[in-house]
Write a structure and sequence with these properties.
The complex is a heterodimer. By secondary structure, chain A is an alpha+beta fold. In chain A, about 60% of the residues lie in helices and about 15% in strands. In chain B, helix 7 runs antiparallel to helix 8 and helix 8 runs antiparallel to helix 9. Classes of the chains: A alpha+beta, B alpha+beta.
């Protein structure tokens, strides 16, 4: 930063922004001289912004006049054109542009005449094309120029000669199979006169014949879809070019056969690729839709069957479900999906152990857990309350810290069809609703008055206010295990603790709290404590609410049940 | 202090953007003579007023002079006499318009005898005024006509002498030169005494030129030509002779030859000392039965070589030499097809590839014979199928084939093995026949084009 700028910055200080008189200069309070400086700069910049386009117009017009004086009408007209674009409403510029544009056009007309009389028909044609393009350009800005009728006459005749000559060269080039050059020639003719003789056909020949031949070569090499794409490209541009439509069908047919053969040889990946290409090109081609579906789904269907045989019913269900979603009732996929679902059912009974005297809390937790497990919408999971299903086994489970003997497990499996028991142990649970503590405090109300002479006097009045505080706490320790009823194996287990607490501390005063100051006791005399005024004000404004222990218990149970239900939902007994 | 910093800047900005005061038109034109303000209108004279912007970069006086002369030339009307050659000959309609344009353009360079009436200038422009009396202009013009006519007659007589001596090439050269001499006066009623008779000169000149051109004959060595499609003709060089009506060979006559079976191709040839030109007929790829070779005297070339004047070239482009046609009959290349086709090792009940090959070859302009004698090429297809795979009541068969072509001497000129063909069907037999369909497509799409390329360089 330069010295001057640094000096200017020195006087800055923060101020409170008042919305009613806010401006860029009041957002930051500047010193007075600095404010003037900025205003002037702003005015100067505005002037520049206002006058800059006008300056540009003036400059451009000056250049244009110089060009015009030197007889350089094209350059002059270009400058006027630029000026008009900067200031389209100024009639003078339009008049100047029209005059100069017309003079340039006359120059072009003279060149057209000269080239025509010299037999240089190409120049005549291109000069005329340039002249008409120029007329069109100026017409778009509302300046209408007129081309000399004799120029049009010269152009018409020169065009006939020039294009006839180019046409012959194009024909010869095409016969020699030099398609690139032929295309260029016929494109040139087409640009000048699209209806000249048989130009359109020759241009198509030059454009498409090499593509057609390339496609034929690819077909010969067995690259049917590449050939198809090339013929299709021609077909889009010119559907009647040679027998391009038949060739496309032929290419699709061969690729279709390739796909079918892959399918017959049970190479499903290649079959799906080939048939997919044909399907995308023409979904209605023969029975490609059916075969493509078969190529995609047959391997999945087969895998589903194999999984079902191996007892992996859940995975089999997903395989058959994929087939049904893709191809509807492919073979007996719907039926097999139902069979898989039935076989994949996983009934689980839940039992929860709680510390002494907390059985109600345990029940509360178990209800929440069961509810949460049901809400997972797991197709395979069926949830039961173990106590409701078999109270004696439930009691045994709780009394033996989650251990069941073989016969109990077998009973659960055979009698109730359960595949697993979920045992939850709420080993530690504390819910503490704290008591509200109130302490009476001495303070002062401070009143400030101003006399007519401008003197300020302060008076303090001793008062009483209260300081209130409270703390609530919930803590929980839990472990759970999922036990297989068939093997007694612990399939899933976890352990976690949760703790939540909340507290509140505030001051309460019935008078004007904004002028309330705390007091300090000095040798039995209360005095105003200026230093802790802000602390007291904060306490007076502090929130008085506190979360109840019951609501915190609910939160803790929500978290725990969500974790357990999520883990059970993600558990795949087949893995 | 700060004001001192801003004020000059502000003043500069405002000044640079302010519009300078323009001098009014009346101020500029104060004291201008009448001819500057309004075109002079004295009917005894042709007038020309020109002006130019005064700049240091260009010679504005010269520019104003050229502008004045151009103005004067533009005021001199160009009339075409009703007894001029334009009225006598059936020229292209645009020619007389072109002639008028051309005369206006050239008049300026021929202007003489004009006088400077005055000049005037103001701060921005310079004006100059020229004029020439109409009678003086006419006198000078008549002098130029007489002079041109005399020179042209000299060339005309020379042309006649060459023509009578059978030197047509030289005769045409002098007719062109004679035309060039009077090109500016073709709109006038030009009269000349020829063979003791006063007659319209330009009409006579063009009649003699036409007659001279019409008497050139291009003679082919044969009445017609028979060519094989896709092959070069047996006698691929033709000797044409150029003669006059008495049968005398004409040398140094350019001719242009075009070929209906090769659009765009043009051969420009010149007859040698014996009046002959040699022509290469080239390869024929046409699918039509009748084509032709066209030869015409390249009069355009003769004109271009003897005059650089565009108007004369344009004028003489109306004169056409006769076109001589040599009919070309296309005899298609003849193929014979023999096929040994088996399906699952058993001979097929009906021919599979032959009908498709016949269709493809005839569509491509060739002929297919029923007997193997007198054919150009023998196409041989040997194919067999074998069982492929089977699934869900669908069967596939695999086809292998060899395709070869022999020329009339028994030499193999093209061959291709085809191994990647399969067919599908409800039986292996049906699948084999389906494979033959695929073979036919392959032959048509890729094998035959490759064969044509090999055989005919197509």
């Amino acid at each position: 930063m330069g010295k001057l700028a640094a000096a200017r910055m020195k006087g800055f200080k923060k101020s409170i922004i008042q919305p009613e008189n806010f401006s860029i200069f009041t957002a930051i309070e500047f010193p007075k001289n600095m404010k003037h400086y900025l205003y002037k700069t702003l005015v100067f910049l505005v002037l520049i912004i206002v006058f800059l386009p006008a300056c540009q117009v003036k400059k451009t017009m000056k250049k244009a006049t110089e060009f015009e004086a030197a007889g350089m009408f094209k350059d002059a007209a270009d400058m006027y054109f630029q000026a008009l674009q900067l200031n389209p409403k100024k009639a003078e510029i339009k008049i100047d542009l029209k005059r100069c544009g017309q003079l340039y056009l006359e120059e072009l007309s003279e060149e057209i005449s000269q080239s025509y009389h010299q037999g240089d028909y190409k120049t005549t044609v291109y000069d005329y094309v340039a002249a008409t393009a120029y007329v069109d350009k100026l017409a778009r800005v509302g300046v209408n120029l007129k081309i000399d009728p004799s120029s049009t006459r010269y152009f018409e005749e020169a065009k006939e000669n020039f294009l006839a000559e180019r046409y012959e060269v194009g024909q010869k080039t095409l016969m020699e199979q030099n398609y690139t050059d032929a295309k260029e020639i016929f494109e040139e003719i087409y640009r000048i006169d699209p209806d000249f003789r048989d130009t359109k056909n020759y241009l198509n020949q030059a454009k498409f014949e090499p593509v057609y031949q390339d496609a034929s070569r690819l077909y010969g090499e067995g690259k049917y879809m590449e050939a198809y794409q090339k013929w299709h490209f021609i077909f889009i541009e010119d559907p009647n070019f040679k027998n391009v439509k038949d060739q496309m069908q032929q290419a699709l047919n061969e690729r279709y056969k390739q796909g079918s053969l892959f399918l017959m040889n049970e190479n499903f990946t290649e079959a799906a690729t080939a048939l997919g290409e044909v399907y995308r090109a023409d979904p209605g081609f023969e029975d490609v839709k059916v075969l493509f579906a078969e190529a995609r789904n047959e391997p999945v269907y087969r895998q589903g069957n194999s999984l079902l045989t191996d007892g992996k019913c859940r995975t089999a269900y997903f395989a058959f479900n994929d087939v049904v979603n893709d191809a509807g009732n492919y073979k007996d996929a719907v039926k097999l999906r139902e069979t898989s679902l039935k076989c994949a059912q996983y009934p689980v009974a839940v039992g929860t152990l709680a510390p002494k005297g907390k059985s109600a809390t345990a029940g509360e937790f178990q209800s929440m857990l069961i509810n949460r497990m049901i809400k997972q919408n797991n197709l395979f999971l069926k949830v039961y309350d173990l106590a409701a299903l078999d109270n004696s086994i439930s009691q045994s489970l709780l009394n033996n810290a989650g251990n069941l003997n073989r016969s109990q497990l077998q009973q659960l499996a055979s009698k109730h069809g359960l595949k697993a028991v979920l045992f939850c142990n709420l080993s530690e649970f504390t819910q503490n609703e704290g008591k509200q503590k109130k302490v009476e405090k001495t303070g002062f109300e401070r009143t400030t008055t101003k006399t007519s002479t401008g003197q300020v006097s302060v008076s303090d009045r001793q008062v009483k206010y209260e300081e209130v505080s409270q703390e609530n706490l919930v803590s929980m320790t839990m472990n759970y295990k999922l036990i297989s009823t068939q093997t007694g194996e612990i399939l899933l287990t976890d352990y976690f603790t949760e703790q939540l607490s909340d507290e509140t501390k505030y001051a309460s005063y019935n008078g004007n709290s904004t002028i309330l100051y705390p007091a300090v006791n000095s040798n039995g005399i209360f005095m105003v404590d200026d230093r802790n005024f802000q602390s007291l004000q904060s306490l007076l404004k502090a929130p008085k609410n506190i979360k109840s222990a019951a609501s915190m218990t609910n939160t803790v149970f929500e978290t725990a049940s969500q974790k357990i239900a999520g883990n059970i939902n993600n558990f795949n007994p087949e893995k | 202090m700060k004001r001192i910093f801003y004020l000059p800047l502000l003043v500069l900005v405002l000044l640079s953007c302010s519009t300078s005061k323009k001098t009014s038109y009346d101020d500029l034109m104060a004291g201008a003579p009448e001819w500057v303000k309004q075109s002079p209108n004295n009917p005894s004279f042709y007038h020309g007023v020109g002006s130019a912007v005064k700049t240091a970069q260009m010679d504005f006086r010269e520019k104003a002079k050229q502008s004045a002369l151009s103005d004067m030339a533009g005021n001199i009307s160009v009339n075409i006499s009703s007894s001029s050659v334009f009225s006598q000959y059936e020229f292209d309609n645009k020619l007389s318009e072109y002639f008028k344009d051309n005369i206006k353009l050239s008049t300026q360079s021929y202007l003489e005898g004009y006088e400077v009436v005055g000049s005037w200038e103001n701060a921005e422009r310079y004006w100059v005024y020229y004029r020439i009396s109409k009678s003086e202009y006419e006198r000078i013009k008549n002098e130029r006509i007489q002079s041109a006519l005399e020179k042209s007659l000299g060339d005309f007589n020379e042309a006649g002498t060459f023509n009578r001596a059978g030197n047509t090439s030289e005769a045409i050269k002098f007719y062109i030169k004679a035309t060039e001499k009077i090109k500016d006066f073709l709109g006038e009623d030009l009269k000349a005494n020829i063979d003791g008779v006063e007659q319209p000169y330009a009409t006579r000149l063009f009649a003699d030129l036409t007659s001279c051109l019409q008497n050139i004959r291009i003679v082919y060595p044969v009445e017609s030509l028979i060519m094989k499609s896709g092959q070069k003709a047996a006698g691929e060089i033709l000797n044409l002779s150029i003669r006059n009506e008495s049968g005398k060979s004409l040398s140094a006559i350019p001719a242009v030859v075009s070929y209906s079976y090769f659009p765009g191709k043009k051969d420009e040839l010149i007859s040698d000392a014996s009046g002959n030109i040699r022509l290469a007929t080239g390869q024929i790829k046409s699918k039509r039965k009748d084509e032709y070779i066209s030869s015409v005297v390249n009069f355009e070339k003769m004109v271009k070589e003897n005059t650089s004047d565009i108007f004369v070239r344009k004028l003489l482009a109306n004169f056409k030499a006769p076109e001589y046609i040599l009919p070309v009959f296309i005899s298609p290349t003849i193929f014979y097809i023999e096929a040994d086709e088996k399906n699952l090792n058993a001979p097929v009940a009906a021919p599979q590839t032959q009908p498709s090959l016949v269709t493809a070859l005839t569509t491509d302009g060739f002929s297919v014979a029923n007997v193997s004698s007198k054919t150009d090429y023998l196409v041989s297809v040997i194919a067999n199928t074998s069982q492929g795979s089977q699934r869900n009541a669908k069967f596939s068969s695999v086809l292998t084939a060899s395709f070869s072509v022999k020329d009339s001497s028994g030499q193999i000129v093209f061959s291709q093995q085809i191994t990647d063909i399969s067919g599908l069907g409800n039986t292996y037999d049906e699948a084999g026949l389906d494979a033959y369909k695929a073979l036919n497509s392959k032959l048509r799409i890729s094998v035959l084009p490759a064969m044509y390329k090999q055989l005919f360089n197509d």
